[in-house]
Design brief:
This protein is an alpha/beta fold. The protein is 38% helix and 18% strand. It has 9 helices and 11 strands. Helix 3 links the parallel strand 5 and strand 6. The longest helix is centred in the N-terminal third of the chain and has 15 residues.
Length: 268
């Protein structure tokens, strides 16, 4: 089976590429030059360089927008490009890596544009949309932010300011091997459907911080701060001037549960 993985150098794409390349003929693409992947810009390059494929897996996505790379461009316009070139690629099965909570009317632009892209695909046959919760890779955004939180605590003598309401938010992380197993199964299916991809149990951010304490052997002392205050700080200062610490999109998602029925993935 010949598989094309768009965005194979990214956090999710690299996991899927590595999990498939030993048993399938896989072409991974990246917009950056790399000996491991085919350098390919889906907005300017000739799609014929990808050849014919049985399955095309779209792993391209972003949590932070830039002036040259908007959410609409990366999520919606790229999906339209895939559909426009599908026939020339041999009419492959399309597997879209979306995000849990994606919806066309979501207030967070990241999830709204993901939802619009998903709906475009679901109008066509032989399409699968995977909506994973946080994927537990070493480079995942959650891990980076938790380490950053630990570093921040050192500046504040072990104290960590947390917006009120954050600690009770629940997530349901999925392990990379479970995601790979799901993708492998979907490569041989022909149904058009949405599959939430989550781990066995939800976990709160309070529990995540406790795990951080144990892993880094640090005494992190949580102080809850008024959410109204942190809303102002993030919107007018941190999210605008220091988006690498936390963007406004990431901040909004901190207060929204990211969970689903685990039976869906277990019974697939």
């Amino acid at each position: 089976m010949k598989i094309v993985v768009l965005g194979a150098s990214g956090q999710v794409g690299s996991v899927i590429y590595s999990g498939l390349k030993d048993i399938h003929e896989v072409t991974g693409t990246s917009r950056n030059r790399s000996g491991k992947y085919l350098q390919f810009d889906p907005f300017s390059d000739d799609w014929s360089v990808l050849g014919k494929a049985d399955v095309l897996i779209n792993c391209v996505g972003q949590i932070a927008a830039t002036p040259k790379s908007s959410f609409d461009r990366i999520h919606v316009l790229l999906t339209k490009q895939i559909l426009a070139h599908r026939q020339n690629l041999g009419n492959p099965r399309i597997i879209q890596i979306s995000a849990l909570g994606a919806s066309t009317d979501h207030q967070v632009e990241f999830l709204r544009t993901k939802g619009i892209a998903d709906e475009l695909l679901l109008q066509h046959p032989n399409v699968a949309v995977i909506r994973p919760s946080i994927i537990c890779t070493p480079r995942t955004m959650l891990v980076k932010k938790m380490i950053m939180l630990s570093e921040l605590a050192r500046v504040f003598f072990g104290f960590v300011p947390i917006p009120r309401g954050f600690l009770t938010t629940q997530i349901q992380p999925i392990m990379p091997d479970d995601l790979i197993d799901l993708v492998r199964k979907l490569c041989y299916s022909h149904n058009t459907r949405i599959i939430p991809a989550v781990g066995p149990e939800p976990i709160s951010f309070h529990e995540v911080i406790q795990i951080l304490r144990e892993c880094r052997h640090e005494q992190l002392k949580v102080i809850e701060v008024s959410k109204r205050f942190t809303d102002i700080v993030v919107k007018n200062f941190v999210g605008y001037l220091l988006p690498k610490i936390i963007s406004t999109q990431q901040y909004q998602l901190l207060f929204e549960d990211n969970t689903a029925d685990v039976e869906t993935i277990e019974t697939f």
